[in-house]
Amino acid sequence: MASTQIAKSFLQAIQHRRTIYALSKKEILPEEEIIKYIRAFVKEAPSAFNVQSSRVVVLFGAQHDNYWGQIVPAALRAVAGEGAVEASKQKLAGFQAGTGTILFFEDMNLIKGQQEAFPQYAAGFPVWSSHSSGMAQIYVWSGLESLGYGANLQHYGGLTGETLKAEYKLPDSYAIQSEMVFGYPEQPAGEKEYMADHERVIAYGHSA
Ligand SMILES: Cc1cc2nc3c(=O)[nH]c(=O)nc-3n(C[C@H](O)[C@H](O)[C@H](O)COP(=O)(O)O)c2cc1C
Fold first, then answer.
1. In 3D, which of 103, 102, 104, 90 has the Cα closest to residue 22?
2. 194 lines ligand 1 (CB under 6 A)
3. What Gene Ontology cellular-component terms does the record carry (predicted)?
């Protein structure tokens, strides 16, 4: 394939990626197939010094339902009371209506190891760890949408990270970054405003 063809396909894939909230559990691919793709997307995401610190837990079925139906409401209740649970009820039900949730973690033991090995960059490694997680997230998000799924990105992990680690017996060094909900897209994404390209990207030294 000519490289421009690959570039066009890549552009199409990233243009297709949007935040989709209206999700259902209608099957697109078997779960095993979804896991295979997510593994491949995460595998290809770059990381600082190739540390490969991103860790992913995929929740399906009862585990996914339990996260949005029990774990998140309980965590919200504990910090902000029943009113906060009530106010979020519809939103959380929308997430639960999806097929699955992808939990993104970073293994901070590896980041600590980098800091010890290269003290001159110590302050940079946690930042690059976040960047790497974002890269894994965008691969998975775009990849899933290329497969026909809709997805959205959530951040309840500050409230639920410790519970998740206990529930799934994950290492204490895992730091949760985000939760990506995916499912069958029942409605398209909403309108999105874009800034002018030239305000975001400028070039110097080109001939045109
Ligand atoms: C780093 C990051 C954090 C985000 N956090 C949330 C979030 O907590 N909840 C949410 O509903 N959307 C979240 N989003 C989705 C953004 O609101 C969305 O990507 C943005 O409005 C652009 O819309 P699009 O995804 O359809 O292109 C986040 C996106 C990014 C990149």
1. 90
2. no
3. cytoplasm; nucleus
Domain that holds residue 139: 20-187
| pLDDT reported for residue 130 | 98
Give CA–CA dist 197/14, Å, rounded.
16
User: Is 5 part of a structural domain of the chain?
Assistant: no
pLDDT band, very low/low/confident/very high, at 1 (cuts 50, 70, 90): low
- What are residue 174's phi and psi, to 5 degrees? -75, 125
Quick check: 18 pLDDT over 80?
yes
> What's the CA-to-centroid distance between 208 and ligand 1, angstroms?
35
Q: Find, among 132, 102, 135, the residue nearest to 114 by Cα.
A: 132
The atom number, within ligand 1, closest to the CA of 189 reads 26
27: CATH = 3.40.109.10
Instruction: Tell me what the mean pLDDT of segment 168-182 comes to.
Output: 98
Q: What is the mean pLDDT of residues 161-189?
A: 98
User: For 101-119, how does the pLDDT look when each residue is reduced to its tens digit (9 = 90+)?
Assistant: 999 999 999 999 999 999 9
Residue whose CA is at the smallest distance from ligand 1 atom 18: 19
Asked whether residue 207 is assigned to any structural domain, the reply reads no
CA of 3 to the centre of ligand 1 (A): 30
Q: Name the residue at shortest CA distance from atom 27 of ligand 1.
A: 18
